[in-house]
Amino acid sequence: MASIGKIRIISPETAGDIRKNQIIKQNIPEGHLTEKIMESALKGTPMIQIGSGNPKLMLIAGIHGDELPPQIAALKMVDNLVIRDVSGTVFIVPFAIPQATRKGSRRFEGFDMNRKASSGGSLSNKILKAIKNLKMSSAADFHATKPHSNPGVESIFCSKKPCYQSYEIAEYIKKATSSKIICHKVAGTLYSGALEDECNLSGVPAVTCEVVSQNNRLDPGSQERSYLQMEAYLEYFGVI
């Protein structure tokens, strides 16, 4: 069984009562660990450490509070990792912005946090700093996309420069899940401030994984598909 470390709070400004989001409340695992994470979200952005040693990986969900499948999948991943053998350390941020998740909002303080990772003081920039300070081997950001939107299909965003491993991770997840790869030649060329891009530009190989679900809904199979993407990501590094 993997050990679980102290739950750290990345940012107190984001605090919110996750249990007021009824879809989240009705679909999360029951038990002491889930309750502990819910309580920690009342203090801000929780980060759960599971295992020890290298590689060090971070899974993030909830950068957009209205994208529910990966947040539920992340909680289930926490629940499952603690009863498995983990080779390395997995840091999981199941609710990046508890306040936004409670409200079912895509934005926080008026901004899309997946465009603000390069802006000092923003929530996504604080997550980026945690990734750097803890010397993460890699990071993966999990989202849900509406049908007929952008990208509108189950997918993995990656880039080939400056971190070619970003593309290699995406290829592995694609083979395991049949998700579509959306690859950019250079990180950050389409738009700036995405957490994945800022990680890659900082030398930390990263991907963004999307499953299909309407905003503030849990479309059939969406949380399971998000969980499969997370599992494939961890398998790439031999952590599970």
Descriptive overview:
The protein is of the alpha/beta class and 240 residues long. It has one domain: Aminopeptidase (3-Layer(aba) Sandwich). It is built from eight helices and eight strands, in the order βααββαβααββαβαβα. Strands 1-2-4-3-5-8-6-7 form an eight-stranded mixed β-sheet, with helices on both faces. α6 links the parallel β6 and β7. The radius of gyration is 16 Å and the shape is globular. The termini are close together.
Name the descriptors.
alpha/beta; Aminopeptidase; 34% helix; 21% strand
For the terminal residues, how far apart are their CA atoms?
12 Å
CATH superfamily: Zn peptidases
The CATH topology turns out to be Aminopeptidase
Order of helices and strands: EHHEEHEHHEEHEHEH
Q: Please, what is the average pLDDT?
A: 96
Low-pLDDT segments, ≥5 res = none
Task: Give a quick summary of the entry.
This protein is of the alpha/beta class. It has helices at 22-27, 32-41, 69-81, 98-103, 123-133, 165-177, 195-201, 222-236, and strands spanning 8-9, 46-52, 56-61, 88-93, 138-145, 155-161, 180-186, 206-212.
